[in-house]
Specification:
The complex is a heterotrimer of chains A (360), B (415) and C (286). Chain A starts with 19 loop residues before the first helix and ends with a helix. Chain A contains 15 helices and 2 strands. Chain B contains 13 helices and 14 strands. Chain B folds into 2 domains: 198 residues, Rossmann fold, CATH 3.40.50; 166 residues, Response regulator (Rossmann fold), CATH 3.40.50. In chain B, helix 3 packs parallel to helix 4 and helix 5 packs across helix 6. By secondary structure, chain C is mainly alpha-helical. Chain C has a two-stranded antiparallel ribbon. The chains are: A mainly alpha (360), B alpha/beta (415), C mainly alpha (286). Chains in contact: A-B, A-C, B-C. At the A-C interface, helix 6, helix 12 and helix 14 of A face helix 4, helix 9 and helix 11 of C.
């Protein structure tokens, strides 16, 4: 099974990330980046101290630079790249374009939310239950849906989101349209709630992202990962090679859904409120797809790069041009431009840069 | 040479970053957080304009307007500067924007958020940071049952309105020897609609009214045919509606097409009170009624409203409606509280808000006081009915300007 | 019984309106395998045009739909040439995402230009007119729209099946390269198809302000249902889309009345899942 299967199939995976040389470079960068992100909040304290030493008191630009809003943007980047990476397993590596992931995201969110709000417990049992429930539901939904091809499959996942959204809106046990609001409870890792500080959430999101990236990195070079790509390139051919394509697709979906549910749990712990339109909407589903495809579908770095560009774009345009929709016009325009100019996504731009360097 | 230029430039740039922008200028930043885009954008934009109107009055000399703070410039020597943010009607965006406003923009307080579902998490942020949050028109009763110290809400909540509706129905029964007993509910299935409907159900049972049909619908619907057919089938005497903007026009249109009318139709919020929608609906919208804290014919009992409305009209082109005027009141009351406290210390201002009574010529009743949970005790609304294109107050009798048209004349009798 | 008939009539009328919106989408989807996410926003833009024509020019929607159709045609042409054509040789996701970005631009562009006000046309010729038979009510504006839907779908069907242009379109949709070799200018055909699709949705947008408020968000739900209809009918099948639309209208109406209004879309979306279990390529797909 060659990695270089490039242009065939209905997806266009970037033909890089293949040779072991590129892989080790990518690993090296990844670990370096992780280390940098680990110390980043500490750096801000250091910078702040230096700055205070040079320009005392009312200044404080660096601290402002690494302020809670900056951390908020970083947390969102981590969370969204984790979500998109989870989608990438089934959408990118396995080639099943699903618009249904917000359902799993929502189930995870409601798992943690119900655990805290309705039962007054720590969120963790709900997180686990949510992840399992999401996997189970993913299996139940996907089994009939995998019979469908291409757009029929995509529209079916659309339909699933709408059905779940509306059922949750009228389901009294989970408070229906009113949503779940967190009460004021103790802070800490046990509850995974902090009211003022963002640093803990930062590390939580970083851990979540790292976990998921490790899983996908592991898949890339192991048997199951090859099965996935074999199924993407053609279920019939894969079957002829002895790969049970339905089973591969189902396990990929279950894995992806479970991880997505974890991200959902993080989302609700971060926002301290959940209602169906917040989590189970088509908009949310599109986020998964948009970030992955713009970053580079079916690649390890794609989701991260996509989130790295799109999230700050979204957050900062809203802060600067907020008011009359101008921010969203710009956002939409950027999406169009990236899609038209760089079909392989931002990953394509980056890998082209690498390539030209190597040739020189 | 070029190199030196570059370094000079960099040096200047660094200094630009590191030095504070300007010398002491007494400015008090207030954040607004409304749904400026998305499906509630209309209401959000109007609320934003309403706060801007209030700030214009506070910051500039307006001796012709008889409102506290209008005569002078600013509050305690501070000029108020607004920082606008967009919640998109989404709770998670609202929360993070509230955090940004406080942390990044260093606003002193926030006014918002229209959608009750957004106000909840956003005001929670303010409470944790011990900053003041003023909600003008978010109507969910649950907001002021959270034991918050820094949260203040001006609107009458949906419990108060539900009670008033039932009182009104009882009053009609007494005066017209009619027997209105059955109640139908039609509401959008959101935090706002669901809350209103729940309150209505509770109170209706106390008034011995029977809820015969309960119709939630999904906002932004393409049609409301089955909803109206369901209502028509059960044919309740009275309907309480909670629909916003586009859904309200669709509802009226569908009721008209299906050739059905209840005897009394009362509406909670926005859709009915939007003066522009009422104008566009024309005769179809007549004789529907609802709760209102302000409509243009209130000018007679609150004369100052006229001059302020002129400022507001310049921005939006429409007169105030019940929701937006509450946001203006919110800003003005906050300004007064700061002046009365004599300091901008949030703790002291919050205490002042809890303790003092505020003169508010723009509120019905003229006064504003807050209880310990931040609900405006003096919040009042009257029942208005749309008659010949104008909102007329019909209940309670001591404030009424017109007699109620009851029951609603049927469609074929209208011309 | 009367209620049942009324519910059925409502369902059929609604289904017809959906068919009108979906017919254009069916065309592009079948011919070039492109999901036009901005379809609902085309509808919205055309509705705005009609509204302004009526508001400033006093032109009734019954006349203005011609202008709206032309506008839709031009919009489709422009969008194809500027955006979609560049996506054709890329993945199907490319066109979907590009049109999604476009839909954001259109929606918020209208918000920026026209404010989020809900705009209702009053004083149109058919306003409030209805046929009353016993306890049954048939609103005229919806009836007229349904007739338009019927005409539009038949016209498109005839165009595809009976004209040389239609054959060229079909050839292009089956095998673009082979069609090219046969001397068909496929680029021109595709542009025309996209523009035609815009024209269809433009006509729909021209008629709808008769009974629907115009605002920037109005297209969103329609486009979702249009996707469903086209997939349920089978891609590329105009007749399939028409029957799927009727079916969806009826199911929505029955579920809304006999189950609960809030569950009507649950029923509609479940219907799709059931149908594709039975026919994985839609009702009339192959």
């Amino acid at each position: 099974m060659s990695d270089q299967s490039g242009a065939s199939g209905n997806l266009d995976p970037s033909p890089v990330s293949s040779s072991s040389y590129t892989k080790s470079v990518s690993d090296f960068i990844g670990i370096g980046l992780l280390l940098f992100l680990l110390v980043l909040p500490k750096l801000s304290v250091l910078f702040g101290a230096i700055e205070n030493y040079i320009f005392p008191a009312p200044y404080g630009r660096f601290q402002n630079l690494l302020s809670s809003n900056f951390l908020h943007v970083l947390i969102l980047i981590f969370l969204y790249s984790a979500m998109s990476q989870a989608w990438n397993i089934i959408g990118g590596y396995c080639g099943q374009i699903s618009f249904g992931h917000s359902v799993f995201f929502g189930i995870g969110a409601y798992g943690a939310g119900m655990s805290v709000v309705k039962y007054g417990m720590v969120p963790w049992p709900g997180v686990v239950a949510g992840a399992f429930a999401a996997s189970l539901i993913a299996l139940m939904i996907s089994y009939p849906c995998f019979k469908l091809r291409g757009h029929y499959f995509a529209i079916a996942t659309f339909a699933v989101v709408e059905i779940f959204n509306r059922m949750f809106m009228v389901w009294d046990w989970i408070n229906g349209a009113l949503g779940l609001d967190y009460p004021i409870i103790e802070e800490g890792w046990k509850q995974f709630i902090w009211y003022d500080s963002k640093v803990e959430y930062y590390y939580g999101a970083l851990a979540l992202m790292t976990l998921i990236f490790f899983i996908v990195r592991f898949l890339e070079t192991h048997r199951f990962g090859y099965y996935l790509r074999a199924v993407r390139e053609g279920a019939e051919i894969a079957e002829s090679l002895g790969v049970d394509s339905t089973r591969v697709k189902l396990s990929a979906m279950a894995l992806s859904a479970g991880i997505t549910a974890l991200c959902g749990s993080f989302f609700v712990q971060y926002n301290l409120r959940v209602d169906p339109p917040m989590v189970m909407s088509l908009d949310m589903s599109l986020n998964f797809v948009l970030i992955t495809v713009l970053g580079g579908i079916g690649t390890l770095w794609g989701p991260f790069l996509g989130a790295l560009v799109l999230i700050p774009l979204q957050e900062y345009t809203r802060a600067w041009w907020s008011g009359d929709g101008l921010d969203l016009i710009i956002f939409g325009f950027m999406i169009v431009i990236v899609v038209l100019k760089q079909p392989q996504g931002i990953q394509g731009i980056v890998s082209n840069m690498f390539k030209t360097k190597k040739r020189e | 040479m070029n190199n030196r230029c570059f370094w000079l430039f960099m040096f200047a740039f660094l200094f630009g970053i590191l030095l504070p922008v300007s010398a002491e200028e007494k400015i008090l930043k207030i954040g607004t957080l409304f749904p400026l885009t998305g499906s509630c954008a209309l209401a959000g934009q109007r609320c934003k304009a309403a706060v801007e109107t209030a700030v214009e009055i506070i910051n500039n000399k307006h001796p012709e307007i008889n409102v506290p703070l209008a005569a002078g410039e600013g509050v305690l020597g501070y000029k108020i500067q607004l920082v606008h943010a967009d919640s998109q009607g989404k709770p998670d965006v609202g929360k993070s924007e509230a955090e940004r406003l406080f942390d990044q923009e260093n606003v002193y307080a926030i006014i918002g958020c229209y959608n009750s579902a957004v106000t909840k998490p956003a005001s929670f942020v303010a409470e944790r940071k011990k900053k003041i949050f003023v909600a003008g028109c978010s109507s969910s009763a649950a907001l002021t049952e959270r034991k918050m110290h820094y949260f203040f809400r001006l609107a009458p909540n949906d419990r108060i309105e539900s009670k008033e509706f039932c009182d009104f129905v009882q009053w009609l029964n007494k005066n017209n020897s009619s027997n209105l007993k059955t109640l139908g509910l039609i509401y959008e299935n959101t935090e706002f609609g669901k809350h209103a409907a729940d309150e209505a159900k509770q109170i209706a049972s106390k008034y011995e009214m029977e809820v015969v049909v309960d119709v939630p619908f999904n906002p932004g619907a393409t049609n409301l045919n089955s909803e109206v057919t369901t209502l028509k089938d059960k044919n309740p005497d009275v309907i309480f509606g909670a629909c916003l903007g586009g859904d309200y026009t669709l509802f009226i249109g569908t009721v008209n097409q299906q050739n059905w009318l209840p005897k009394v139709a009362l509406n909670y919020c926005s859709g009915f009170q939007d003066p522009q929608i009422s104008k566009q609906l024309g005769e179809k919208g007549y004789y529907f009624a609802g709760a209102s804290g302000y409509s243009p014919d209130f000018v007679k009992i609150m004369p100052v409203a006229e001059a302020i409305e002129k400022l507001y009209k310049e921005k939006t082109g429409v007169p105030f409606d019940t929701d937006s005027i509450l946001e203006t009141v919110g800003m003005l009351v906050l300004g007064q509280a700061i002046e009365k406290a004599g300091t901008i210390d949030s703790e002291k201002v919050a205490e002042t808000l809890h303790k003092e009574e505020f003169v508010s010529p723009l509120s019905f009743g003229g006064k504003v006081t807050f209880d310990e949970q931040g609900q405006n005790n003096k919040a009042m609304s009257v029942v208005v009915q749309l008659q010949n294109g104008e909102y007329r107050r019909v209940y309670p009798p001591e404030y009424s300007t017109a007699s109620v048209t009851f029951p609603i004349p049927s469609w074929d009798k209208r011309k | 019984m009367n209620t049942f008939l009324q519910v059925t009539i409502d369902g059929i009328l609604n289904g017809m309106i959906y068919a009108l919106v979906a017919s254009g989408l069916s065309l592009t989807w079948g011919v070039m395998d492109v999901i036009n996410f901005a379809h609902g926003e085309f509808l919205m833009a055309a509705m705005y045009l009609t509204y302004w024509l009526a508001f400033y020019g006093g032109v009734d929607p019954l006349v203005a739909w011609v202008a709206a159709g032309l506008f839709g045609f031009m919009l489709g042409w422009l969008v194809f040439r500027l955006v979609v054509v560049h996506c054709l040789d890329k993945t199907p996701m490319a066109a979907l995402l590009a049109t999604f970005g476009l839909s954001m631009m259109l929606k918020n562009g209208c918000l920026y230009l026209f404010s989020p006000n809900y705009r209702v046309l009053s004083g149109t010729w058919l306003e409030g007119k209805k046929i009353i038979a016993g306890s049954l009510v048939i609103p005229l504006p919806q009836l007229v729209t349904s007739i338009f839907a019927l005409l539009m779908v038949s016209a498109l069907y005839l165009l595809l099946r009976k004209t040389r242009l239609g054959w060229a379109i079909q050839a292009t949709s089956m095998d673009r390269e082979a069609a090219e070799l046969m001397g068909i200018d496929t680029r021109w055909i595709l542009t025309l198809v996209f523009a035609l699709s815009g024209a269809c949705v433009g006509v729909a947008g021209g008629l709808m302000p008769m009974y629907l408020a115009v605002h920037p968000e109005v297209g969103s739900l329609f486009s979702l249902i249009a996707f469903l209809i086209v997939a349920m009918g089978g891609f590329g099948s105009m007749i399939g889309a028409f029957f799927a639309a009727l079916l969806i209208g009826l199911v929505e109406s029955y579920a809304g009345f006999y189950a609960a209004p809030v569950l009507k879309y649950v029923a509609v979306f479940s219907l799709y899942l059931v149908v594709v279990q039975w026919r994985p390529k839609g009702l009339f797909g192959w």
